[in-house]
Amino acid sequence: RVSSVLNRDVKQFGKQHLFDGSEETCWNSDQGTSQWVTLDFPRPVKVSQLHIQFQGGFSSRLCTLEGCRTGEELVKISELYPQDSHAMQISFPRMRFQVEETVLEKLKITFGSSTDFFGRVVVYHLGVLGERL
Q1: What InterPro entries does UniProt report for this protein, alphabetically (predicted)?
Q2: Where are the beta strands (DSSP E) in the chain?
Q3: Predicted confidence pLDDT, tens digits, the chain (133 residues)
């Protein structure tokens, strides 16, 4: 699930483009102060890395990661501080752009403080790495 899609144009800017592997497509949020992406996994996973590629000028200065197991409340896992660039950004434990290894079945990434004046966020690639349990 995603918080919004630009002009409700799901075909051109929908959530499916986060994972399609194409450099030509993207998820483009609509305007707003806080945008988010929620991922539900069919079974528990241990998340260890996050890969994200924004469009420069439409990135987030702060990404808050929350997660939980089925039936539980979301809890804050990490805060990430991406760069405002089009480059792929990869999180590794013990680095500034850090994800703590966590077992979960639901992951929510909240994009706060967008670099775009209107609060839009554009993501070309989102990857969550880890292991299935």
Answers
A1: FA58C, Galactose-bd-like_sf
A2: 27-28, 34-54, 60-68, 75-80, 89-90, 102-114, 122-132
A3: 999 999 999 999 999 999 999 999 999 999 998 899 999 999 999 988 889 999 999 999 999 999 999 999 999 988 888 888 888 887 754 444 556 678 999 999 999 889 999 999 999 999 988 899 8
